Task: inverse folding
């Protein structure tokens, strides 16, 4: 790989940006496709979309011969706002599914290492906790505190960062009031359709454990089949 191409790929990786290195196996020439770029006119555009979703590299046959697609996709993250019972059930499930999980909650009565492993927990306000690890397009956010003082900021930040999933706990009435607050805070109303509330798949979940399953299902669906909600 050319040094300039490698440097560009390394830079994208450090900034948690997805890319595909396209290698022509006939002459070993290479070029790079960024996820955020407009590649709609490329003959492999549909293949790129599928590879970005699956994260799998592999060989593809084209009219000009075989090419190898080296896919570089940031590991998906789940940021849970609220160290509540739902979160206690959701953390191990999400980790088994391959997500890197962070739980954020400033309330010391909930945010304890007895309830959550130290590496997962950030006992701080979201405004502070997200400074070192800002949200991005490969992060899912689930706000489950039921407290606007804690939930609203990360929801705003998640919509602005184009997180692949943004969900919030609460009834439809609660959500309507939430949208009013978010709009007053400067959120773009055209993005509100991306906010999953009430949170999780509609499976009739009742217990914290069942709600955790519903939330994880929504996260995985948004990650692997985003077109289903388009």
Result:
């Amino acid at each position: 790989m050319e040094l300039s191409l490698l440097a560009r790929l390394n830079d994208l990786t450090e900034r948690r940006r997805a890319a595909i290195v396209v290698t022509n196996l006939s002459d070993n020439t290479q070029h790079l496709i960024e996820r955020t770029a407009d590649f709609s006119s490329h003959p492999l555009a549909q293949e790129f979309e599928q590879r970005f979703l699956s994260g799998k590299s592999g060989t593809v046959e084209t009219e000009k011969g075989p090419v190898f697609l080296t896919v570089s996709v940031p590991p998906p993250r789940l940021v849970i706002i609220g160290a509540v019972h739902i979160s206690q059930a959701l953390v191990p499930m999400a980790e088994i599914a391959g997500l890197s999980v962070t739980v954020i909650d400033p309330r010391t009565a909930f945010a304890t290492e007895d309830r959550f492993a130290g590496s997962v927990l950030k006992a701080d306000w979201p405004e502070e906790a997200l400074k070192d690890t800002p949200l991005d397009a490969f992060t899912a956010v689930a706000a489950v505190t039921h407290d606007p003082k804690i939930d609203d900021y990360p929801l705003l930040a998640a919509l602005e960062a184009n997180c692949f999933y943004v969900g919030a706990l609460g009834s439809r009435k609660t959500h309507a009031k939430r949208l009013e607050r978010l709009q007053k805070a400067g959120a773009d109303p055209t993005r509100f359709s991306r906010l999953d509330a009430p949170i999780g798949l509609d499976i009739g979940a009742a217990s914290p454990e069942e709600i955790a399953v519903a939330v994880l299902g929504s996260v995985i669906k948004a990650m692997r089949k985003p077109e289903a909600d388009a």
Q: What stands out?
A: The first helix runs from residue 3 to 14.
